[in-house]
Design a protein that fits this description.
Blueprint: H1 20-30, H2 33-46, H3 54-66, H4 70-81, H5 86-97, H6 103-116, H7 123-131, H8 139-142, H9 156-163, H10 167-175, H11 191-200, H12 206-232, E1 251-254, E2 261-262, E3 268-289, H13 298-301, E4 304-309, H14 312-315, E5 325-329, E6 332-336, E7 348-355, H15 357-365, E8 371-385, H16 389-392, E9 399-402, E10 417-428, H17 433-458
Parallel strand pairs: 7-10
Antiparallel strand pairs: 1-3, 2-3, 3-4, 3-8, 4-7, 5-6, 8-9, 8-10
Helix pairs in contact: 1-2, 3-4, 4-5, 5-6, 6-7, 11-17, 12-17
């Protein structure tokens, strides 16, 4: 009587020149368990994965289970569970009840399968396993699955040795002591882990590797796009052609009979008191939106500030100098230039814009570098809060006012124009592709990082644990 096959015995490659994948496929087609185990071990050692059909994968898992490689068998069965294959569930339960010595999990899974698949061919055998000893669970996978490719039926001469085998020899593999499966060798995936595996593919598979490479490419491309978009956007210094309207001074006209304008916003009662009619054409060098800050109710009244230059600052091309810069913060626009650079401070202003919903939509679409013209009125703002949430939290006051500047040569606090804009003309449009590239790259970056975090939090980083594995030699003793 020959001893049972050791799944971790040294492999004798002989003189054949087959690749590891060809060797495994040939062993599967011949239904030779010993050859299947040897070829599978060589595939593992090479670090390569083999694309298989579900039938081939089930066939391989059955051979590994019969050969004592229970960790690898459970891993393959679990991959088949993603394909909604109940047979894999039955065989996992059988391994849990038998060599894995996790009877409670096995019984729970079999009981669940009895409810969800009452007509499955393996149900009676599973129920018999529950009623009898756990060792009988091995019979569920002891019969080899049909090979994936048709093979010729053995001749009577070939079948005779198997038929003449003694009962003792046939019972030897069943009597072999099964190794205990390490508790954490094949971790159970959570619901989110199964979803991640359905999205990326089983860890170590070709589909998984392709998904990870694709995410890496998206991440690197998005970082490059963010850098290019950031450096290319808001470059008003590259302006090629100036509209003639920007060379003119603002037009300020006294109103004969100014009428207060009701401009209520939510629970804020707003009255705009016009002072002058006003027209202003300028180059947009800075823009700040305050509507999303929610710090003051005034931010809802005038959610956008525009910093504009015109006249000599545009005509002489001084805005092209890298020594001249603008930035906005907390309702102020700051300009910075070197001492040797001429700059006309009377041809520059920060404008608080009060607008209708239609004009506000145009304001939201503006980008730095646009050449625009505003039509409206310089107004003083009077507002009364009526039970707003921000006032209840202690922000703002019950009544407040906001007065406009009516001169271009004033400085400091109160020097900004408050304009009720009734019409906005976009004279020349700045290139939009840097902003679009930046936004698209930012979205792609968030998507790639989010998917990588999702993968890291739900899937193991190795196809399966090698805990408890024996050292292996591939080329004989």
């Amino acid at each position: 009587m020959s001893p049972p096959h050791d799944p971790y015995a040294p492999i004798d490659l002989g003189a054949d020149k087959f690749s590891n994948s060809d060797r495994l496929k040939q062993a599967l087609s011949k239904d030779n368990d010993e050859a299947i185990l040897s070829a599978f071990r060589l595939m593992e050692a090479s670090g390569r994965s083999l694309e298989m059909t579900p039938d081939e994968q089930m066939h391989l898992a059955d051979a590994l289970a019969r050969g004592g490689m229970h960790i690898q068998a459970i891993r393959l069965y679990q991959e088949l569970r993603i394909e909604k294959n109940p047979e894999a569930d039955f065989k996992i339960a059988a391994l849990w009840l038998g060599p894995a010595q996790r009877a409670e999990e096995g019984k729970a899974l079999l009981a669940q399968l009895a409810e969800t698949h009452p007509n499955h061919p393996l149900l009676k055998e599973a129920q018999a396993v529950l009623a009898q000893s756990p060792e009988q669970a091995q019979s569920i996978y002891s019969a080899p699955s049909p090979p994936p490719t048709p093979a010729q039926s053995p001749t009577p001469a070939q079948a005779t040795p198997a038929a003449q085998a003694t009962p003792a020899a046939q019972a030897t593999p069943t009597a072999q002591a099964a190794p205990v499966l390490p508790e954490q060798a094949v971790p159970e995936l959570s619901t989110w882990g199964l979803r991640a595996q359905a999205l990326f593919g089983p860890v170590g598979s070709n589909r998984y590797k392709l998904a990870m490479r694709l995410l890496q490419v998206i991440l690197l491309a998005s970082i490059a796009g963010l850098l290019i978009g950031y450096l290319a956007k808001d470059r008003y210094r590259n302006l090629e052609e100036v509209h003639p309207a920007l060379l003119q001074e603002p037009k300020q006209k006294k109103l004969t009979e100014p009428t207060p304008i009701a401009h209520d916003i939510g629970k804020i009662q707003v009255r705009l008191n016009p002072r002058y009619g006003y027209e202003l054409a300028g180059l947009l060098v800075s823009k700040m939106s305050y509507g999303s800050w929610w710090l003051k109710d005034m931010d809802d009244i005038a959610p956008t500030d525009l910093c504009l230059i015109w006249g000599k600052n545009v005509k002489k091309g001084w805005f092209r100098s890298p020594d001249l810069g603008f930035h906005q913060n907390f309702r102020k626009c700051y300009v910075k230039w070197t001492c040797g650079l001429p700059f006309e401070s009377q041809a520059f202003s920060n404008n608080h814009i009060v607008a209708t919903a239609e004009v506000q939509a145009q304001l939201d679409d503006l980008e730095i570098g646009d050449q625009i013209k505003l039509y409206g009125r310089l107004v003083n703002v009077r507002a009364i809060e009526r039970g707003t949430a921000m006032h209840a939290l202690g922000f703002g006051s019950s009544n407040y006012s906001w007065n406009t500047s009516t001169k271009r040569d004033d400085k400091g606090m109160g020097a900004c124009e408050v304009i009720f804009v009734e019409k906005l003309d976009l004279l020349r449009r700045a290139p939009r592709w840097p902003h679009q590239l930046f936004r698209l790259s930012f979205g792609a970056f968030l998507l790639a990082v989010g998917l990588l975090i999702f993968r890291a939090g739900t899937l193991p980083f190795q196809p399966y644990s090698r805990q408890g594995r024996k050292p292996r030699r591939l080329n004989g003793p």
